């Protein structure tokens, strides 16, 4: 058996074990190089034609439309959001730039939209205009799970005249031939979407050791419920939450990342794409990852130099790496993960891209990280 065959089989074994253990009801993975798929397989209760919620791996898809607008000169990174959208400048938000929104330094990480009004653009815009700052823009990094990309969606509509879902389709996905990747899936086309469920048990002891205080399990359950609603509610799926619920099979995501490597369809201006995939503009500490540098570009995360941060909890016998995209990618690898164990990245040094999608959100974050390190580490060594 060749080394490639052994690597392929080892990834299969890890994925099948997660299915057999009940962690992932279904899963897919894909590996690509030179614009072509090298592998694409489905496990558990999934067919190759099924699609999975990408969760936050959606974010680069939406950002890639903004990269086009930068290349077309419709906006610059220094442009203040309020210049395009004056009402947004209320409550001190007039200083926020596009770059800060893309880098998650804009200062409203916990801002939310009420699900009962998020379906109407005018109501969304009014709610966002009323958001308050939690800190001065540009001074801190905190992951803006939902808020920042709703701002990008409004900017896209104001600059192009297209709804963000339409802009993603006509400007990026159709030119790249990605028919299975979709943001804003209408109800009549939701039959092939895999419903997401949470599996396993919360690693409360790990969280309490990291935080140094008791953990409110009811709060964990509420947060989990909100995440599952974004992935499973037909109305929100059709809405196309711009930072959270594009749907795809693993193959289309792997090919999307090949395009970020090669730009063979010339969808983006080369200098803008180079900036988006290579230039780390945000190295502020990530409090969630124990102060590790954020290593963010204008839409992506880059591995960065070194071995990353190690999670060490001797009292619990835990030692795990928190290095993005596994242990064997180069420091230039870029991508974006998502809740529920979604992984998507490309490595300019190897030319490989990889995607893993599941519909089982493992509550044990340490076990999930180790599982991903094993699978992604193998993928990065594909011959």
Spatial order of the strands forming the largest sheet = 2-1-14-13-12-9
| Gross morphology | globular
- The number of distinct structural domains comes to 1
In CATH, the topology is named Beta-lactamase
**Rg over CA atoms:** 20 Å
Beta fraction of the residues?
A: 15-25%
Number of helices: 13
- Summarize the main sheet: 6 strands, antiparallel
Give an account of the 3D structure.
The protein is of the alpha+beta class and 383 residues long. The chain has one domain: Beta-lactamase. Helix content is 37%, strand content 15%. The strands form 5 sheets. Strands 2-1-14-13-12-9 form a 6-stranded antiparallel beta sheet, with helices on both faces. Helix 1 packs antiparallel against helix 13 (365-380). The model has no long low-confidence stretch (mean pLDDT 93).
């Amino acid at each position: 058996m060749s080394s490639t065959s052994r690597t392929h089989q080892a990834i299969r074994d890890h994925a099948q074990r997660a299915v057999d253990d009940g962690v992932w009801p279904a899963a897919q993975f894909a590996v690509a190089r030179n614009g072509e798929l090298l592998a694409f397989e489905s496990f558990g209760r999934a067919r190759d034609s099924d699609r999975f919620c990408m969760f936050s791996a959606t974010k680069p898809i939406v950002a890639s439309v903004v990269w086009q607008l930068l290349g077309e000169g419709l906006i610059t990174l220094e442009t203040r959001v309020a210049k395009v959208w004056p009402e947004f400048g209320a409550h001190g938000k007039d200083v926020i730039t596009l770059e800060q929104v893309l880098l998650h330094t804009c200062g409203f990480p916990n801002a939310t939209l009420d699900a009962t009004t998020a379906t109407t653009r005018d109501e969304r815009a009014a709610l966002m205009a009323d958001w308050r700052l939690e800190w001065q823009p540009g001074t801190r990094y905190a992951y803006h799970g939902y808020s920042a990309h709703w701002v990008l969606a409004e900017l896209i509509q104001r600059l192009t005249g297209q709804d963000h879902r339409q802009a993603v389709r006509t400007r990026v996905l159709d030119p790249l031939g990605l028919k299975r990747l979709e943001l804003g899936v209408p109800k009549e086309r939701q039959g092939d979407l895999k419903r997401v469920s949470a599996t396993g048990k919360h690693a409360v002891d790990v969280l309490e050791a990291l935080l140094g205080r008791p953990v409110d399990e009811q709060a964990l359950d509420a947060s989990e419920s909100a995440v599952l609603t974004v992935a499973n509610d037909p109305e929100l799926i059709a809405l196309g939450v711009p930072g959270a619920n594009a749907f795809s099979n693993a193959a289309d995501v792997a090919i999307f990342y090949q395009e970020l490597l090669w730009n063979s369809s010339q969808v983006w201006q080369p200098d803008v794409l180079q900036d988006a995939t290579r230039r780390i503009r945000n190295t502020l500490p990530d409090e969630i990852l124990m102060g590790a540098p954020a290593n963010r570009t204008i839409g992506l995360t880059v591995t960065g130099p070194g071995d990353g941060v190690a999670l060490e909890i001797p009292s619990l016998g835990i030692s795990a790496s928190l290095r993005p995209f596994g242990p064997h990618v180069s420091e230039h690898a870029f991508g974006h993960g998502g809740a529920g164990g979604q992984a998507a990245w490309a490595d300019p040094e190897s030319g490989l891209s990889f995607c893993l999608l599941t519909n089982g959100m493992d509550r044990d974050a340490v076990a999930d990280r180790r599982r991903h390190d094993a699978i992604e580490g193998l993928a990065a060594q594909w011959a």
